[in-house]
Every structure is written in structure tokens, then in C-alpha cells.
UniProtKB/TrEMBL annotation:
Keywords: ATP-binding, Nucleotide-binding, Transport. The lineage of its organism: Bacteria, Pseudomonadati, Bacteroidota, Flavobacteriia, Flavobacteriales. The keyword Nucleotide-binding applies. InterPro entries: AAA+_ATPase, ABC_SmlMolc_Importer, ABC_transporter-like_ATP-bd, ABC_transporter-like_CS, P-loop_NTPase. This is ATP-binding cassette domain-containing protein. SMART domains: AAA (SM00382).
Length: 333
């Protein structure tokens, strides 16, 4: 079974080192997400995998084929791999339809119209088929760019912030359509994104980059349930680092555990005594900031708005505490 093998011992622009000790595999058909703060090296890594940047120390293989970088390929990029960069690379003076058609195989002329319709459907832009690309908004152009990379049905698809310019109204259905389509076709995907909504529902595995190094590479659900550090957890949203002694006063452990806001449950009578500082409307719930005894700030969710100055008692299940303590042990060793 084909496997994408990525090894970058070190890579830098000019003299500055950007990536080091990178090594991971992606089996055919798997969807890997790459998350990391801005500047952590996500785009650089995708460009290396696609063969746009030359790596002295490292190599990239798809099965037995080595991805040759710009020092060996006059036109960088491999036929079986497509890369959607943050700038879309469209032909502005031709129509949406022509932009897509240009990437369809010349050997399948009779099926072109059907494929164009299928791709326009996928990006929800059927009514724009005859519109010139230069007249489209940034988000619409990004959707056309997505259709273009899909037109050739690559074996490996690299997506760099694929929904960054698309508004929420279209974004949710587009990412469901797109990732469902790619999974059905068995395409191997690597998506670089800041947005946990691009990652949590769709990526089989998630790799976390920090300062150009891998800090985690796990099944997405396991990583969310057991984040190895604060940095990883905070990429998924708000998170608290809570001293165990605050949660369980009898515990003689000088450690903290990571607790997501939805894992802190309120009670009127017992738990960590906390005074409400702010209550933020989040749509389906309120995210509250509270000051616990001893001054620790805690973020916690409630179904209703809380009044500033109110006192609540917060609790975390023993099961959650124990699970998080186990990860601490694992990563310390
Ligand atoms: N062409 C370049 N020349 C020099 N330095 C660069 C170049 N491209 C990127 N960098 C630097 O490399 C580092 C990693 O950038 P990269 O774009 O890979 O990060 P990223 O994680 O994709 O960030 P973002 O999420 O903001 O897109 C940054 O410090 C950036 O300034």
C-alpha cells in the first residue's frame, strides 16, 4: 500500500532554521491535519512535500517514487500530487468553467461537461459557470481554486488553509462536501489549518507543529481527549491549566491538569468556589471567565448568562483528572 513518507531533518530559509526533526508517514486514503500557530512552519512543510523547496537533509517518498525538489525538476510539482496554496493561481480573464476545464484530462473530452457540472455543484457555484474569474470575490475565487485541484483527481492533495477566505455561510457545507468527496475517492489529504472546525470532524490524524518541530501526531479524537500540553489543547479552543490541589484539596500532588471549559461543571453547593468576572455569549452557550480561590482564572461553559460578581462552584470529574494525569506521566518520560 502506498505511503507518503516525509523526512525533513532540517530546513531553513537563508540562514534561519524553520523546520527540524520532522518525520511522519501518511498511508493512502488517510486525512492528516497539520495544526500550529502562525509561523510554526505549516506552509513551508507543505511546499517541501510538493517539491517547491529544496531540502538538503531529508527526503519525501510517495510509495517508491521520490519527490524531487526544484533542483531536479524544471517545473516543480508531481503529476500525482496537487497543492492548493494560499494564493489561488487562477486565470483571471477566463470564466469559472474554463478555469476548471483547463485542468481536466484531454483524454476524457466527452465527459468534460459532466465533470465540470459535478465540480461546480461541489463548490456550489453552478450559476457562476460563465462568469470571468476576475469578477469574483476572494471567497468565490478560493472555491474555484479548490475545483481546479480536484479536477485532476490527484492521489495526494495538499491544502493550505483551504477555507481561509470563505465566509461561514458557505464554509460549513463546502468543507463537508469537499472532505466527503475526497474520502470517497480515496485521496490522501494533508490539510494545514488554524481552525479546529476544519480539523476535528474530518481529519483522521492531527500533527501539531511548534517552532518547526512536531510536538504531537495522534488520532484526532485521542489528541483532543488527551492533549499532551497546553499549546496543543489551546489550538482546539479555550483551555484551563488547573492545579490539582485546587480541584481536590486532599491531593498532595503539585501538578496541574488541562481542563476544557465544557469539562468544568457548575454546582450551587460544592466544588471550587469561583466568582464570575465575565460572561460571553457564544451562541449555543455562554463562556464565562471566573476567579477561583487563590486567584486562578478559570474558563467554563454554562447554558445561561451569569452575572458578574456571582459565586459558583466548579467541578471536574475524577475520571477526567486521572486521564489527564496519565498523559502528564507519559509525556514526562
Ligand atoms: N520565502 C521565505 N523566506 C524567508 N522566510 C520565510 C519565507 N516563507 C516563510 N518564511 C518564514 O518561515 C516561518 C514559517 O512560515 P510558514 O509560512 O511556513 O508558517 P505557517 O505555520 O504556515 O504560518 P501561517 O499559519 O501564518 O500561514 C515564518 O517565520 C516565516 O516568516
Amino acid at each position: 500500500m502506498a505511503l507518503l513518507k516525509v523526512r525533513v531533518d532540517s530546513f531553513g530559509y537563508e540562514s534561519r532554521n524553520i523546520l527540524q526533526n520532522i518525520s511522519f508517514n501518511v498511508p493512502r486514503g488517510q486525512h492528516l491535519a497539520i495544526m500550529g500557530e502562525s509561523g510554526s512552519g505549516k506552509s513551508t512543510l507543505l511546499k517541501i512535500i510538493y517539491g517547491l523547496l529544496h531540502v538538503e537533509e531529508g527526503d519525501i517518498f510517495w510509495g517508491n517514487q521520490e519527490v524531487l525538489g526544484p533542483n531536479y525538476n524544471l517545473v516543480p510539482g508531481e503529476g500525482y500530487m496537487k497543492y492548493l496554496s494560499q494564493d489561488f493561481d487562477l486565470m483571471p480573464f477566463t470564466t469559472v468553467e474554463e478555469n476548471i476545464a483547463q485542468h481536466l484530462s484531454v483524454f476524457e473530452r466527452e465527459t468534460h461537461q459532466r465533470r465540470i457540472t459535478e465540480l461546480l455543484d461541489l463548490i456550489e457555484m453552478k450559476s457562476f459557470a460563465k462568469v470571468k474569474v476576475k469578477k469574483l470575490s476572494g471567497g468565490q475565487q478560493q472555491r474555484v481554486a479548490l475545483a481546479r485541484v480536484l479536477a485532476q483527481e490527484p492521489e495526494v492533495l495538499l491544502l493550505d488553509e483551504p477555507f481561509g477566505h470563505i465566509d461561514n455561510f458557505k464554509r460549513n457545507s463546502l468543507r463537508r462536501n469537499l472532505f466527503h468527496h475526497l474520502k470517497e475517492k480515496g485521496i490522501t489529504i494533508i490539510t494545514a489549518s488554524h481552525d479546529p472546525n476544519d480539523v476535528l470532524p474530518f481529519a483522521d490524524r492531527t500533527l501539531i507543529l511548534k517552532n518547526g518541530e512536531i510536538v504531537a501526531n495522534e488520532q484526532t479524537k485521542d489528541l483532543f481527549a488527551n492533549p499532551p500540553n497546553y499549546y496543543t489543547a489551546s489550538l482546539f479552543g479555550e483551555v484551563n491549566e488547573v492545579p490539582i490541589g485546587l480541584l481536590k484539596s486532599y491531593a498532595a500532588i503539585e501538578k496541574s491538569v488541562l481542563v476544557y471549559p465544557h469539562e468544568l461543571k457548575t454546582s450551587d453547593t460544592s466544588g471550587v468556589k469561583t466568582q464570575v468576572v465575565r460572561s460571553y455569549f457564544n451562541g449555543g452557550h455562554y463562556l464565562n471567565k471566573g476567579e477561583a480561590e487563590g486567584g486562578t482564572m478559570l474558563y467554563f461553559n454554562t447554558p445561561n448568562e451569569l452575572k458578574v460578581g456571582d459565586t459558583v462552584f466548579l467541578n471536574v470529574s475524577l475520571e477526567t483528572i486521572n486521564r489527564r494525569l496519565q498523559i502528564g506521566k507519559k509525556t514526562n518520560t
